[in-house]
Amino acid sequence: MTKTIHITVAENILRANDEIAAENKLLLKNSNVLALNIMASPGAGKTSFILKTIALLSNIYHIGVIEGDTSAATLDADKVTSLGLPAVQINTGGNCHLDANMVQNGLMKLPLADLDIVLVENVGNLVCPAAFKLGTYKNVLIASIPEGDDKPYKYPAMYSAVDVLVINKIDLLPYIPFNMDYYIDGVRMLNPDLISFPVSCTTDAGLPAWMDWLENTLHEYRYN
Amino acid sequence: MHELAVTESILSIALDYAERSHAAQVTDIHLVIGRLSSIVDDSVSFYWEIISRDTICSSAALHFTRLPAQLICLDCHTEYEVDQDLIPCPKCNSVKVKVLSGNEFRVESIEITSEEND
């Protein structure tokens, strides 16, 4: 006899990813390494921002980088290794995001015992990366002025999933219509406590505040 | 755009629960998706047809329940829902609001047929 049975599941759809993310988190904690998941749309300046952060801090801290890319081109990873830092490139094979498993493979290839900070550069995309936890301590979104001031309204999942907002290319504000009040209103609706850093990687404006935050966060991560 | 990965996860969870209950077939899968989780139903359904082939989920129907986002105004404490775009508090126009729900993204339940006799 065939009978129909209703089974309650109530499982997060991305359960498997979340479990691997939890392993990554533990691995990073045990290695005493602070990891940041850096997300942005293509062209927001992720790589420039990462290179800037490295230039300003690599004399004090040992930094490693995981580069997520949709193609096999190693351009971004090459820029990091040319500075003498460990970098791993993950080719997502056309996938629109990094997942926890890819990052775990990347972490295995980095000399974690020698590192203080790992910067994970996610695939340029404001939709998909927001859904996949990686096990990093903080999620960082790099927005940029040329993208326009409506992005929080259009990409609410991304803006609600991050801990830190970097608003890049503020040197372009005089040239581009961008209503900062409208933009910030959208951000606050989704994420009232979001810390934000307006910066320019061209003029270095705002970068000292970002550096202070990163150093304080490393301290908080290690000693709290 | 990440619907393939999402669809694979839905299949894996459904198979996991179905096998534990010794299901013959899975007939229905109920999904709950909040307004703030981005997912395209049609795209999931498209991938579903392909990846569920040759499994006990191959004839299962996917049911999407969309939940609106619930917000509360931190100034006047009005609670309100948004279905489409985010809007400030409809009562006092404040943007100091907190998202109470809308990020749901789960497999709620499945229905299976079983050949076992009671």
Mean pLDDT of chain B: 90
Instruction: Briefly note the structural class of the backbone of chain A.
Output: alpha/beta
Strand content of chain B: 25-35%
Distance between the termini of chain A: 59 Å
Q: Provide the helix percentage of chain B.
A: 10-25%
CATH class of chain A: Alpha Beta
Domains counted in the coordinates of chain A: how many?
1
Please report the number of helical segments of chain B: 2
Gyration radius of chain B, to the nearest Å?
A: 18 Å
What general form of chain A does the structure show?
Answer: globular
Label the overall shape of chain B. elongated
Return residue spans of chain A where pLDDT drops below 50 for at least 5 consecutive residues.
Answer: none
Q: What is the CATH architecture term of the domain at 3-67 and 102-113 in chain B? A: 2-Layer Sandwich
Number of strands of chain A: 8
Give an overview in words.
The complex is a heterodimer of chains A (224) and B (118). With 224 residues, chain A is α/β, with parallel strands linked by helices. Chain A has one domain: 3-Layer(aba) Sandwich (Rossmann fold). Helices cover 37% and strands 22% of the residues of chain A. Chain A has a seven-stranded parallel β-sheet with strand order 4-3-5-2-6-7-8, with helices on both faces. In chain A, helix 1 packs parallel to helix 4. By secondary structure, chain B is an alpha+beta fold. Chain B has a domain of 77 residues: hypothetical protein PF0899 fold, CATH 3.30.2320. Chain B has two helices and six strands; from the N terminus they run H-E-H-E-E-E-E-E. Chain B has a three-stranded mixed β-sheet with strand order 2-1-6, with helices on one face. Chain B has a three-stranded antiparallel β-sheet with strand order 4-3-5, with no helix packed on it. In chain B, helix 2 links the parallel strand 1 and strand 2. Chain B is elongated, with a radius of gyration of 18 Å. The N and C termini of chain B lie far apart (44 Å). In chain B, 32% of the residues are buried. The model of chain B has no long low-confidence stretch (mean pLDDT 90). Classes of the chains: A alpha/beta (224), B alpha+beta (118).
